[in-house]
Description:
This protein is of the alpha/beta class and 409 residues long.
Amino acid sequence: xxxxxxxxxxxxxxxxxxxxxxxxxxxxxxxxxxxxxxxxxxxxxxxxxxxxxxxxxxxxxxxxxxxxxxxxxxxxxxxxxxxxxxxxxxxxxxxxxxxxxxxxxxxxxxxxxxxxxxxxxxxxxxxxxxxxxxxxxxxxxxxxxxxxxxxxxxxxxxxxxxxxxxxxxxxxxxxxxxxxxxxxxxxxxxxxxxxxxxxxxxxxxxxxxxxxxxxxxxxxxxxxxxxxxxxxxxxxxxxxxxxxxxxxxxxxxxxxxxxxxxxxxxxxxxxxxxxxxxxxxxxxxxxxxxxxxxxxxxxxxxxxxxxxxxxxxxxxxxxxxxxxxxxxxxxxxxxxxxxxxxxxxxxxxxxxxxxxxxxxxxxxxxxxxxxxxxxxxxxxxxxxxxxxxxxxxxxxxxxxxxxxxxxxx
Length: 409
Ligand code: PA5
């Protein structure tokens, strides 16, 4: 991965020494487990065993929310070499659930229920709905293990208890790996296998990258840019890959950045607001704001150097722009828009980091994942907050149940 910095901060609040201290304390903490588990061959082995049992299923349905869905969605959108149909029941929208379930060939489907905590209301609700559908379709309760696989915490979880009761195959999310850091555990590895992704290559590349990046100058420089710009009031972070296949990477990043870094520390409200975007499409949507709006954004501008396919723009139209385009390829046009936009951002004084990957494959994808996960962890620790908790969403959950109970009275 290539990194090129066009950042201009006036503050020097965060020194390289501070960041180094954050790195060293992170390496000793149990939260380093999202990197340590990349060495755990059993996680890959158990996932492959489960896959072998169900590998002929044509419909793969992931039931989960937040970190139990966004990572897998990102992987499958970036690389899918099979004709398996993927569905993500990642919300409790009644009509969407109804329509999605009607599309699924129930008897030819595998339902992968993922919840780290094992009790998330949205996920439990979807699992109950799917179970009802299967029973209505004539499937016996004793036959449910033929349709479900569960993935949850190995120690304590309602989903674990239920799975054991019903005899359902179970995969595990290691206890110290939180939802938004779990994509390279069975959470994302099982759907990845159904998409024809080489998960050993994915995980080994992630491990190689992580163990080098954690001690690198690039990590320190990127973290320092993020933090010193934040001290200058640059508190919005844009991720803009120039690729449709990496669009979901932006949504995965949003959860990672927002849930990890938005915290109330003894009344001091901290946070960098993530903005998902993708090029060239969003040049016709958000770019005007990025260019001429307030200088309060750091943009990660991500370029993919090579495509799998070539499409020529050759044409027989004798008209203005069409004439000009005819000697180029669609990829040339994408590159021109990317580099043209960088030049314009330079002129406007917008802060950006130009990231480059050669092509979209297991290696580059795992590097992007680990780049943002480690950056998030070190940024959070340097801001003296806990990037691995999310206390701010608890009150809303409690009040929702209160509301639900009152609504029946
Ligand atoms: O990052 C997190 O921990 C959360 O966003 C979770 O992924 C999300 O709340 C879903 O939780 P669970 O996997 O426990 O159902």
